[in-house]
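Fig. S4 source data, part A: sequence.
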Amino acid sequence: MKKKKSQNKFWIYALVAVVVIILLGLASGPFIMGYFEFGEPEVTLVEEKEPLSSDGYVAEVEQPEEEKPEATPIVPVQPPELHETPEEMLEWFMLVHMTDENGGVRNVYTDGRPYILAETMGQMMEYALKVDNQDLFNIEWAFVKEHMINEEYGLVYGSIWADDYTPRENESNTDDDMRILWALYEAEEKWGPYYEYKTEGKAIADQMIIYNQYTDTLSKGLTWDEDSYEINKRMDIDDLRWEVMQTLANEDAIWRVMVVKTNAQFLTCQDQSNGLFWQEYDIARSRRVYPEGKDECLTSHMLRAGMYYSDYKTYVPATIIHNKMKIEWETTGKISSAYKMENLGTGNGIEEMETYALAGRNAVRLGDCDFAIEMKERILLDQIDDQESPIYGSVSQNRKENGVEDDIDTLLLLEELKTCQPIQ
């Protein structure tokens, strides 16, 4: 009896097991069938789409403006002990020894308080253009903009003190304004409009108009004190940058008047008997003059006038000056730093490195490369190559101020000689 009950119990358990297996099979069937019937799930790659538009939603986060690249300090040459050429010595002297950490180019006295000339800053901006060094240009222009432009008149101080950057004189010289203005226009031509060089240069040009408009000509500059300002009643022949004035005249009717009237006065300054230039024009008296208290006109001013005002294609005052310098050089072995205009243009017989540098630069423009090389060699005869000297590298050993304008003009001559093209 017991055996029969055990068998019945076994079949009951077996039946339950079969039912469980059937139920599990039914439950897993779709998954199993899905796998074998359709294979692995197919993955569809979604193409990348444009980012979602932010239209209709403005995040309350101020978006940073696009920043201009920051200029970095320039160390263009090796330390003195590694210099091998006069060019390297001179470059080190000006760009390292004479230039401070902010880009200010000092005019160092052997005794006395050093200062920084607007003329020198403009020359360094020109040098940066010549060597295609935009970082150096930006450093020099940033220095001028921050420390050398008078807020009230918008013109460049003639000089500031080198130790605290305060004004050394309440005066702006037209040649300094024109030199910096020219450099800014050239910089935009070379490097494009991103830095707005031309806009900043035009701001200076507009201020020049304001303080010259009563005569409609370019005077020597502006002086001021705490009460008012005064416009100089004279024009200096080296104040002018013909290419800049013509560019401004194409854009501004007032400058067209300035060009016409200034041009007539400039041409009046040339002496038809010897081709040289009287250095100044007295606007009030309408006659040419030499500087008050002097009976001679500086050769450097004549050369700058020829270089700045000549287009080297049509009217070329630079050619006449060049021929005069060349005759004196060939007959006496020197070029005078000034000429006595009331004595048939007799030279004073005194040499200055600035004169030779400018004579060489003018010769490059005229294609007289051999004469330019002679000027270079004459300058380098007086270069200081003693590393113990406080003016090591300078070409101006006989001047207390080291003649920074002489040195930079020499740097420019050396650079321009690299591309001098002789006229066949």
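Fig. S4 source data, part B ends here. Confidence is low (pLDDT under 50) at residues 26-64.
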